[in-house]
Design a protein that fits this description.
Rossmann fold, 5 strands, globular
Length: 127
Amino acid sequence: MSDKKKVLVLDDQRSMQNILKFALKSAFEVTVVGKADDTIHAVKSTSFDFILLDITLDDDRTDGIGVAQELEQSGYNTPMAFLSSMTEASLSDDQKERAQNLRNLKFYQTKPIAPNELIVKIQNFTS
């Protein structure tokens, strides 16, 4: 049995899913999903140590901020971070307001990622 911490990654782009899984698998047990509902289902069925959420989810019922809100409203206290191609400053006022009220949000990471930097950031909240 692995003693690696479990990280859940939500990204709707298959190429980014593959990059993140490859980048993080040396340090974590990684589960990758592509839809908001898959994220909610995964969290209900498995205990994760950290959740990494893409903000922009094309053709989905909500965005990554909405997923984080749903998880918190359901009582989950898992540390989370956003991963996005948009800078924090470029988020809409609505997105900024929704994100600032998240108690489990630990950091905001822009793409492209530096794998070792991302691993260290996540480890800071899973140790």
